[in-house]
Design goal:
The protein is mainly α. It has one domain. The chain has nine helices and two strands, in the order αβαβααααααα. The chain has a two-stranded parallel ribbon. Strand 1, helix 2 and strand 2 form a beta-alpha-beta unit. Helix 5 crosses helix 6. The longest helix has 20 residues. The protein is globular, with a radius of gyration of 16 Å.
Protein backbone atom coordinates (compact mmCIF):
# COMPACT_ATOMS: atom_id res chain seq x y z
CA UNK A 1 0.00 0.00 0.00
CA UNK A 2 1.39 3.40 -0.94
CA UNK A 3 1.74 6.21 1.57
CA UNK A 4 -1.09 8.08 -0.13
CA UNK A 5 -3.37 5.03 -0.16
CA UNK A 6 -2.70 4.44 3.54
CA UNK A 7 -3.41 8.10 4.37
CA UNK A 8 -6.61 8.03 2.30
CA UNK A 9 -7.77 4.85 4.05
CA UNK A 10 -7.22 6.26 7.55
CA UNK A 11 -8.70 9.69 6.75
CA UNK A 12 -11.77 8.14 5.08
CA UNK A 13 -12.38 5.94 8.12
CA UNK A 14 -12.02 8.79 10.61
CA UNK A 15 -14.25 11.14 8.60
CA UNK A 16 -16.96 8.51 8.13
CA UNK A 17 -16.93 7.66 11.85
CA UNK A 18 -17.13 11.34 12.80
CA UNK A 19 -20.09 11.78 10.43
CA UNK A 20 -21.84 8.75 11.93
CA UNK A 21 -21.18 9.92 15.50
CA UNK A 22 -22.58 13.37 14.70
CA UNK A 23 -25.53 12.05 12.70
CA UNK A 24 -24.35 14.14 9.75
CA UNK A 25 -24.19 13.22 6.09
CA UNK A 26 -22.05 15.96 4.61
CA UNK A 27 -19.02 18.13 5.20
CA UNK A 28 -18.84 21.92 5.08
CA UNK A 29 -15.51 23.34 3.98
CA UNK A 30 -14.07 26.15 6.10
CA UNK A 31 -12.10 28.41 3.79
CA UNK A 32 -11.85 28.60 0.04
CA UNK A 33 -11.83 25.51 -2.20
CA UNK A 34 -8.31 24.31 -3.00
CA UNK A 35 -6.39 21.35 -4.33
CA UNK A 36 -6.18 20.09 -0.73
CA UNK A 37 -9.97 20.30 -0.26
CA UNK A 38 -10.44 18.43 -3.55
CA UNK A 39 -8.15 15.72 -2.18
CA UNK A 40 -10.31 15.46 0.96
CA UNK A 41 -13.44 15.03 -1.16
CA UNK A 42 -11.74 12.38 -3.30
CA UNK A 43 -10.37 10.44 -0.33
CA UNK A 44 -13.59 10.53 1.67
CA UNK A 45 -16.21 10.24 -1.04
CA UNK A 46 -18.33 12.70 0.93
CA UNK A 47 -19.58 15.86 -0.76
CA UNK A 48 -19.12 19.33 0.64
CA UNK A 49 -22.42 21.00 1.50
CA UNK A 50 -23.19 24.67 2.03
CA UNK A 51 -24.55 24.28 5.55
CA UNK A 52 -26.95 22.47 7.85
CA UNK A 53 -26.38 18.97 9.20
CA UNK A 54 -22.75 18.95 8.21
CA UNK A 55 -19.46 18.77 10.05
CA UNK A 56 -17.02 21.56 9.32
CA UNK A 57 -13.71 20.64 7.68
CA UNK A 58 -10.46 22.52 7.27
CA UNK A 59 -7.97 21.56 4.58
CA UNK A 60 -5.04 22.83 6.70
CA UNK A 61 -2.02 20.54 6.81
CA UNK A 62 0.28 19.91 9.78
CA UNK A 63 2.67 22.66 8.67
CA UNK A 64 -0.14 25.21 8.77
CA UNK A 65 -1.57 23.94 12.06
CA UNK A 66 1.86 24.24 13.65
CA UNK A 67 2.90 27.62 12.28
CA UNK A 68 -0.06 29.59 10.89
CA UNK A 69 -1.10 32.47 13.15
CA UNK A 70 -4.81 31.62 13.17
CA UNK A 71 -5.95 28.35 11.59
CA UNK A 72 -9.64 28.20 10.73
CA UNK A 73 -11.61 26.40 13.40
CA UNK A 74 -13.31 23.22 12.25
CA UNK A 75 -14.67 19.92 13.54
CA UNK A 76 -12.24 17.92 11.40
CA UNK A 77 -8.73 18.44 10.02
CA UNK A 78 -8.37 15.45 7.65
CA UNK A 79 -4.92 16.57 6.44
CA UNK A 80 -3.76 17.83 9.83
CA UNK A 81 -1.16 15.10 10.35
CA UNK A 82 0.41 15.50 6.91
CA UNK A 83 3.13 18.06 6.33
CA UNK A 84 2.92 20.27 3.24
CA UNK A 85 5.78 18.25 1.73
CA UNK A 86 3.64 15.09 2.04
CA UNK A 87 0.86 16.71 0.05
CA UNK A 88 3.38 17.79 -2.58
CA UNK A 89 4.62 14.19 -2.76
CA UNK A 90 1.01 13.14 -3.44
CA UNK A 91 0.93 15.60 -6.35
CA UNK A 92 -1.32 18.09 -4.57
CA UNK A 93 -0.63 21.76 -5.10
CA UNK A 94 -0.61 23.61 -1.82
CA UNK A 95 -1.03 27.18 -0.66
CA UNK A 96 0.90 27.86 2.50
CA UNK A 97 0.67 31.64 2.36
CA UNK A 98 0.46 31.95 6.15
CA UNK A 99 3.86 30.26 6.57
CA UNK A 100 5.42 31.48 3.34
CA UNK A 101 7.88 33.73 5.18
CA UNK A 102 9.39 30.78 7.05
CA UNK A 103 9.31 28.52 3.99
CA UNK A 104 11.20 31.07 1.92
CA UNK A 105 13.75 31.65 4.68
CA UNK A 106 14.29 27.87 4.90
CA UNK A 107 14.85 27.55 1.15
CA UNK A 108 11.50 25.89 0.50
CA UNK A 109 8.62 24.18 2.24
CA UNK A 110 10.37 20.80 2.04
CA UNK A 111 13.30 22.09 4.08
CA UNK A 112 11.03 23.75 6.65
CA UNK A 113 8.96 20.58 7.00
CA UNK A 114 12.11 18.52 7.29
CA UNK A 115 13.25 20.54 10.29
CA UNK A 116 9.78 20.38 11.88
CA UNK A 117 9.69 16.62 11.36
CA UNK A 118 13.09 16.18 13.00
CA UNK A 119 12.07 18.36 15.93
CA UNK A 120 8.57 17.06 16.56
CA UNK A 121 8.20 13.58 15.08
CA UNK A 122 11.75 12.35 15.64
CA UNK A 123 12.04 14.27 18.93
CA UNK A 124 15.48 15.65 18.15
CA UNK A 125 16.90 18.53 20.16
CA UNK A 126 16.24 21.98 18.71
CA UNK A 127 19.85 22.51 17.62
CA UNK A 128 20.00 19.09 15.95
CA UNK A 129 16.67 19.57 14.16
CA UNK A 130 17.77 22.92 12.79
CA UNK A 131 21.43 22.04 12.19
CA UNK A 132 21.01 22.75 8.46
CA UNK A 133 18.80 25.81 9.05
CA UNK A 134 20.16 27.63 12.09
CA UNK A 135 19.12 30.99 10.66
CA UNK A 136 15.39 30.15 11.05
CA UNK A 137 15.54 28.19 14.31
CA UNK A 138 14.55 31.07 16.56
CA UNK A 139 11.80 32.31 14.22
CA UNK A 140 10.25 28.83 14.00
CA UNK A 141 10.45 28.25 17.76
CA UNK A 142 8.87 31.66 18.41
CA UNK A 143 6.06 30.90 15.93
CA UNK A 144 5.45 27.50 17.51
CA UNK A 145 5.07 29.19 20.88
CA UNK A 146 2.82 31.99 19.59
CA UNK A 147 0.45 29.54 17.84
CA UNK A 148 0.23 27.10 20.74
CA UNK A 149 -3.14 28.22 22.08
CA UNK A 150 -4.80 27.82 18.67
CA UNK A 151 -3.65 24.19 18.48
CA UNK A 152 -5.13 23.44 21.90
CA UNK A 153 -8.63 23.96 20.49
CA UNK A 154 -8.39 21.94 17.29
CA UNK A 155 -11.02 19.43 16.25
CA UNK A 156 -10.29 15.86 15.17
CA UNK A 157 -6.96 15.18 13.44
CA UNK A 158 -6.63 11.62 12.02
CA UNK A 159 -3.47 9.91 13.31
CA UNK A 160 -1.14 9.24 10.40
CA UNK A 161 2.34 9.89 11.76
CA UNK A 162 4.57 9.32 14.73
CA UNK A 163 3.14 12.28 16.65
CA UNK A 164 -0.23 13.87 15.98
CA UNK A 165 -1.46 17.28 17.12
CA UNK A 166 -4.05 16.86 19.84
CA UNK A 167 -3.23 13.18 20.45
CA UNK A 168 0.41 12.80 21.39
CA UNK A 169 1.92 16.05 20.16
CA UNK A 170 1.31 18.92 22.54
CA UNK A 171 3.71 21.70 21.72
Amino acid sequence: MTAEARAAFVVRGVVRQALADAGADALTLRGPPSAASTLIERWCGVPFADAGGALTVSSACKTELLLAPDPLSADLYPLGDLYARDLLAFGVGIDVAEVQDLAEAAGGIEQLDGALHKLLDERRAVDAAFADLPHIRDAVMTRLQKTRLGRARLGIVPKLGARTIGIDLHI
